[in-house]
Amino acid sequence: MSTENNQKGTIKDELKRIFSLSEDSASNEEIRSRLLDGGKITGTNMCVLVCAMVIASVGLNMSSTAVIIGAMLISPLMGSILASAFASVSADYPLLRKHVIGFGLQIAISVTAAMIYFFLSPVKEPTVELLARTSPTFYDVLIAFFGGLAGIIGQTRQDKTNTVIPGVAIATALMPPLCTCGYSIANGRWDMLLGAGYLFIINTYFIFMSAGIILSVLKIPKMRDLTPKQWKRRRFRMIVNTIIIALPSIAAVYFMMH
Q1: Which stretches within 63-189 are classed as H helix?
Q2: Which structural domain, as residue segments, surrounds residue 175?
Q3: Residue 21 placed within a domain
């Protein structure tokens, strides 16, 4: 019996070692620097963002998958979400407010750029690529959640040559839904605006949530101490938000199957 228990213990320890996140993680200072630098709102980032939005809009307008992928790789939106997750986990609320406001500004500029492009574009009919961003399902929740996990794990490793973020940017697709929102406003397609906006919310929230989970596992230092009651309230709020945001996507899968 003891031999069997020892074997189980050995297997358990080995699995813990294999899947350990702390073994090759960067220092807390390095993680903070990377994530907050990636979420900075600068003139360069905003110019790149507008370029990425126009490129993505052209790709959606012309149904060019390659162009859309290129735009997603250029976009700096992912950095703001990860920086916000870091600020939330570290309980640095002034920093969180700063990055959330910055992210809101990025969204406003992105939608405006797309709206101007689609208003001027002679192609008014929605393409297959545009319509594909208007019917989110629970599968999009899974993509955003696990994409966010992969992204934050890649960003917190000692190895600085991070090849994960580009793949996450393609998989989670933050740009195309925003471009579709711009198309919807420019052409008065409010039905498409609802679906595209919801897809963007799904991607943003579940990337944010999965990043928060990994940063909590890594025990990122807190800027302020919260009482057990406050932490309990935060967890409860996150559970409620997750259910509210995910429910429509689950319903969409149900109706697809029936």
Answers
A1: 65-74, 77-89, 93-120, 128-131, 138-155, 164-172, 175-187
A2: 29-257
A3: no
